[in-house]
Every structure is written in structure tokens, then in C-alpha cells.
Fold this protein.
Amino acid sequence: MSRAEMAALGWDACDVILVTGDAYIDHPSFGMALVGRLLEAHGLRVGIISQPDWTSAEPFRALGRPRLFFGITAGNMDSLVNRYTSDRKIRSEDAYTPDAAAGRRPDRAVTVYAQRAREAFPDATVVIGSIEASLRRIAHYDYWSDKVRRSVLADSKADLLLFGNAERALVALAQRLAAGEAIGEIRDLRGTAFMVRADWLPGDAWQEIDSLALDRPGRVDPHPDPYAMEPAAAAPATADGAQPVRIVSRSARLSERRAQRAHTVVRLPSYEEVSADPVLYAHASRVFHLESNPGNARALRQAHGEGAGRRDVWINPPPVPLSTPEMDFVYGLPYARAPHPSYGGARIPAWDMIKFSINIMRGCFGGCTFCSITEHEGRIIQSRSEASILREIEDIRDKMPDFRGHITDLGGPTANMYRMACKDPQIESSCRRLSCVYPGICENLGTDHAPLISLYRKARAIPGVKRVTVGSGLRYDLAVRSPEYVKELVTHHVSGLLKIAPEHTESGPLSKMMKPGIGTYEKFRELFDKYSKEAGKKQHLVPYFIAAHPGTTDEDMVNLALWLKKNGFRPDQVQTFLPTPMALATTMYHSRRNPLKKVSADSENVETARAGRSRKLHKALLRWHDPENWPLIREALQAMGRRDLIGNRPDQLVPWQQPVAQAGQAGARAPGGRRTAPGKPAGGKAGRSCAASKGAAARRRA
């Protein structure tokens, strides 16, 4: 991180310099540590510039010019999600900064850092990546400016963008650059995007097709096979009228189809078109998500600019998921498992949260539309081996002096998808479903929890480990299929409270989220209560809900509030929907169209709470118990013709009268309700990437 450290190592220059918006913590939950150790393992000298002053180029010259490239990232979180709440208010803390100091990174950090790196060394190669770059690789709706913005490639002027889990592409890129290959010639790496001429194609065998001719919108649950050949045209008849017989095996047809798709690029509507037409934006979003399976995805391109200045963003197919041995290699590198010594004793909240947690897998096949995991890590689960995970627990025990025997999480984006996969690799490679569990769990999905149960048992049996808890959220619709798993979890791995995310109770918003109905949650709750009682433990579920999600009406939120009151839930920290770039729910928010179905000018209109007052009402209904929200709720109920819900009966939502004195009401107990913990903020962090796991999972994500 400094010239002095370079001198101590005997380096005259770095091969790669990584720039990050986070404090540098050498732990595999932090992207820069993972990437840096990976490059180091392949013989490269890696420098890290952490949270540089972006107001000038001088901090970007601190380690000199990199021999191969600058690697630019905003950090583990999107810089705008990190800085602003869902109400666009500035957060007072940054969990990834020493002493939680705010203001240590710029808005749109990837773009700013890339521009400063180019200013510092105009001839250096600049490569961008991480979640912020991944989610902005095409033209995208930007909630913070309320407009469609260009690809981050066009704004940052970077040479290459790496998206998704980019370890394999990163190593290949470094090796090819080290061998003397020019960055402008490296155009065949999966999981990369770059700018090209409007007429550029990789070779003569390639063809371009228009997305408008491709999209066959409809239900998302069938399994169309994109490799199935169309009936062949009849061969020309011979002189005597006989038809020659052509027999083509299925494997040959599949091989031919794959070869054709591998040399096809789909042209999306241009940036200018999707900016001007919300319907085209929704169409482009739908096509983008349908072309996201590494087994059958085609390259995409999208024009930016008009006339002589027009350029295309070219996006290669997503990276092939890492194998278990590759995952083990990445997580088995010699991490110091500590913040850089230059921070002294400063507290870094994100580090405090995950220092004793372990990431056991990546990816999520849930497909929740408000979630960015799919766009970044993909739907195919990538799992570490049991031996690798157990070794990491032993490393924590042996190398971290403040470890007291509690592993705080064995999880990932979703805690209970470990080693789950499609039963048939061929079906997996051809499937175009947006979710493996919606509208129901796919019959081809393996949902065996036995490997996870085995892992739990072996983890808690390690000498020196007193307790192993699960901090990530889990899919309760999968869990109810394995009562044995629920029993194991509840008996041994819950620390009194378990986060769970039904998100809503009403079918309208749930259908736009691609989440199961509340009945599935009730089944899980029954199992949870049963096994907690059997274990002699008093434990509770903490349900998470989203306010103002696309497809949610005022009536939906009233019904949710009534359900919360009936079940005795008094949420303190509630969440208003935050539209993150490229998510399908963000498309609904911006376009008011549903990209899960046919997209056209007269297709389904998605009701969305966009105005400040509507969003405030939806959030207030989640906190129905707070007297400060009662005037707004009363006014809304009267406007809806629901005066019957105003009063003091248990089946009514809010009373007619305000308390005489509201001071100190936060800790009051309402009849039949649970105590609201005093002193907690009413509007906790927004912008979870996925259901209930995103406090810890977003921070673990590389």
C-alpha cells in the first residue's frame, strides 16, 4: 500500500495496482483481498490504493505506473447504495471505512477512479470491475439521477470491464498482457465487456440478430431448449422424385446449435432508444436476463451515440461458474485475516461483522426481482468443499487471537443453497427460467440439505469451536422440504433470532418479486416453533418486509400492516424498495411494465409507489405501531374508505386519538403486541441485494 512497503519487498514497480473505495482488509470476504491474493499466487506483484483522495490524480501516482494494468473497483458495495438511503438521504456512516467515517469515496466511484488513474498515467491500461461495474455494463436506469444512464464503460473510458465472478478472466487477462498481447486484442474472454466500432465482429463466422426479432415473451416457467433444431427444409428431389434421407443425431444437432449460438451477437436497442422509450427499456432488460445462463447465453451489443461518434458496448457471455477445486483454491490463499496495519486500532464496522464468518458458496437461483445477486454472481451455485470450509474454521481458531469460539455465520447469498444444483447438466445448460423456485420449485432442482447438515455437524465438532450460528438469510421454501435441516438449524445454529424474508403477504407484489406466498412462511414458522420448543429454547423469527415495491398498492400495504398487528410484529428497522441498476424490479419501477411477461406498449401496467408521499405511507404502514405514523395512516384509510380500520379494537389498525404525550413512546407496549426496542432508528439501511441475507452477504460478496 506504500512505496516503503514496495522497497521492503525489493520491488521497483507493481505489475497490477488495485484501486478500491473500501479500507483494505486482507480477508476473502473483501474483493480486493481476494483478487490481490489470487494475482499474487500467479506470480504478480500487486499494489493496493485504498480510498484515495479523488479530487486530484496525485494519490493515483503513489505506487507508480503499473506494468500491466490498474484494476478499479468501488468496493464491496455500490458507491451510491453505500452512501444514500432509499429516500436519497445521505447516510451518516460508511461501514467499510475506518471509524465508519462518511465521505471517503465519491459517488459513481468506478467512473471517478478510472478517470483519475487515466489522468495519472495516460498510457496505462485501465480495467474496471466489482458489483458497481457489473450492474452498469449496459445502459441502465439510475435511481439517484432518475434517468437512464450510459454504460459505465462509456463514462469511465476504461479499456475493459470484468463482470461477475471474474477470477478466471482476471488471471487470463494478466497472463496475456504479461505475454505482450495488447489490451485491444483481448476480445474473447468470457465475462468481459468493451467498446467497439458499430460494425465490428470477432470474425467472418459471426452473425448479428436484432433483439426485437428474438424476444418471444410469455410465461417464464416452461423449459424451452434453445439447442433443439428447427425441422430441416426438405432436400431437393432426385430425377425420379425420390427424397434422400438425412439422419442427424441429437448430439450432432445440439453441437451445431451450440456452435451457431457461440457465433451470434444479439443487438439490443441503443442507449438513445431505451432512454426515450420505457417499453424498449423493459424489452432490453428482459432480453438481457434471458441471455444470462452461461450454458446458452449469446454475446450482446448496444449502441451508444449517433452518427460518426457512435460506438457499441460489446458484452461477452457470462463466465462459466468456478468449480469446487477452483473455489477451494481462491479461499485457501494465505490471507492475513486482518485490516492493514496502517489503520491502527480504528474500528471498521464491516470487518467487525464478518471477521468470524465464512462464505461457503456463491450465486442464487431464487431470481428475486429486486436482487442484484443474479446479475453479478449468477444463478448457478458455486460451492466450496467441506474440507476447505473446515480448514478455514481452523485458521480462524489458530490465527485470530480475539476468536472466542463463535463462528458467526456459515452462509452466502442464501444460507441453505449449499451444493444444490440442477439434476441434469444438459437441462441446466439450456434452461432460460429466471428462477428455479418460482412460481414453484422446479422438478429438476436438487434440494437435498444433507451436505449442509453434514457440514454443520462437523463444523461444531471442531475442537475450540463452541458455537456455530447462521447469520445469512435462508430460503424457507427450500427449508420446509427438509424438516431434518430445520431441526438441525433450530436446535444448534440459531442465536435466539433468525432473519427470514417473506417480503410481503399479498399476491400482487409477491408475483412481481417472484417470491412464494405467505403460506410457505407459515409452514416454516410452524417447524421453527416446533423444533425450538423441543430443544427447550425460546427463539423468534425476525421477518423482513419491503415497502413500496413495484406492484404494491396502498391496499396491499394495509393488509400487510393488519397481518403484522395480528401476529404481534412491530418492526423497528424497515425497508423501502431501492431500485438498483439492472434489477428486474428496477425495470418495473422505471418503465411501469412487467419484463417477466410480454412487453409491449399495451402490456400489463405495474403500479408503483414513486412519489415521496406514497413511499412514506407504505413505510409508515410497516411501522403501524409508531404514533408518529398514525395521522398519515388515518388520512390514507379515510381516503380509501376504510374508516372501519380506525379505532381501538384489536382488529383495527390505528386509534382515532393521538397519545397525550409522544415523547418516549418508542418503548411503549401496545395491547397484544411486542415491545418496540427503544433507541433504534425507524428507517434502517435500505438496498439489500436479496432477501434477508444482505446485511452480511453484501459485505461478504467479492
